[in-house]
Specification:
Elements: E1 3-8, H1 12-28, E2 33-38, H2 40-43, E3 54-57, H3 75-82, E4 86-89, H4 97-104, E5 110-112, H5 123-127, H6 129-132, H7 149-159, E6 166-169, H8 182-193, E7 201-206, H9 211-220, E8 226-230, H10 234-241, E9 245-249, H11 252-260, E10 263-268, H12 273-276, E11 283-287, H13 298-311
Parallel strand pairs: 1-2, 1-4, 2-3, 4-5, 6-7, 6-9, 7-8, 9-10, 10-11
Length: 312
């Protein structure tokens, strides 16, 4: 097996949950050229970072022809797909139109994985199905990210003036229903920053969707021991979180933190951690009573954070 293409769209967390399967594939084929067709800003987490030698954007106009019947297919893409000995696709293809068009290219070995996750097993176990269909056993479901030396140097530069340990928090997610109330985040941070026993820093992680929450925190925490990391490339963010204590929700950023090695406390509400929580030993889950995050009291989170700080 010399050339392997993995087609993986989806959100950040979906991609991270696929990494255990990709690791098993890489372990069995260490010399193969593995390429990922996906969202470049997400798949960059794997590019020249153990998993894949190259990433190609799935947001490429001519690719749309492969999802239509009797369409004129791009010659360039036909040659591209036919250059691989194996293609693993996680695309949603209920009518098998994409599969038939791929076969037109001369691709002999296409394996499809689940495009949607059900409640039958942990998501990482379901996403391992196409690799296990090749006879490759996926034993370890804990995703791992391997930042490059450049990523790590950028992280050191960013964190240079912050005292350790670093408590990283991400107050957002992809859905308001999955978010702990901002008042609870404020109480948690104020309590920690007010303790004589805590000499470290608070690092607030945010993206475009988290602007409202972060604006509130910026007003309240005008403190030299509080830093804000906004809209960082995911590869740099992973390196930034490597040695941190991290508190977050069911989100892609939480999956990055766990896979990068952060000591994580993750708050789960409406979603099921038995399906969606990182399987890493460094991730502990606090599940909301009645699946409502407003019911998680700060007093329940503080001991978990204190325990993680003691382990740092």
């Amino acid at each position: 097996m010399n050339r392997i293409l993995v087609i993986r769209g989806g959100a950040i967390g979906d991609f991270i949950l696929s990494l255990p399967a990709l690791k098993a594939l890489r372990d069995v084929h260490p010399a193969a050229h593995i390429e990922i067709l996906g969202y470049k800003h997400i798949a960059a987490l794997a590019e020249n970072r153990f998993y894949a030698q190259a990433v190609r954007s799935i947001e490429y106009g001519p690719l749309s022809g492969f999802f239509a019947k009797n369409s004129k297919l791009s010659t360039e893409l036909m040659n591209y797909f036919s250059s691989f000995d194996l293609i693993i696709s996680y695309l949603y293809d209920p009518d098998e139109i994409f599969e038939r068009n791929i076969q037109v290219c001369g691709v002999q070995n296409l394996i499809s994985g689940p495009a949607k996750i059900d409640n039958s097993a942990h998501a990482a176990r379901q996403l391992a199905q196409p690799v296990e269909a090749l006879g490759i056993k996926v034993v370890d479901l804990a995703a791992k990210i391997f930042p490059s030396a450049e990523d790590q140097q950028l992280a050191r530069d960013f964190l240079r003036d912050l005292p350790r340990p670093i408590l990283a928090i991400h107050p957002g997610s992809g859905s308001e229903k999955k978010n702990w109330p901002i008042e609870s985040w404020i109480d948690l941070g104020n309590d920690l920053l007010g303790r004589e026993s805590f000499r470290g820093s608070v690092l607030v992680i945010s993206g475009e969707a988290d602007r409202a929450q972060v604006a509130r925190l910026e007003e309240i925490w005008q403190n030299q021991r509080v830093a804000f990391a906004k809209n960082l490339p995911l590869v740099h963010l992973a390196a930034l979180l490597e040695d941190s204590i991290f508190v977050g929700h069911d989100s892609g950023i939480s999956h990055i933190a766990a896979a990068a090695g952060a000591n994580c406390v993750l708050l789960f509400g409406p979603t099921d951690p038995d399906i969606w929580a990182p399987q890493n030993e460094n991730a502990r889950v606090i599940r909301a009573p009645k699946r409502d995050l407003q019911d998680i009291d700060v007093a329940k989170v503080e001991p978990a954070v204190a325990a993680s700080l003691c382990e740092a």
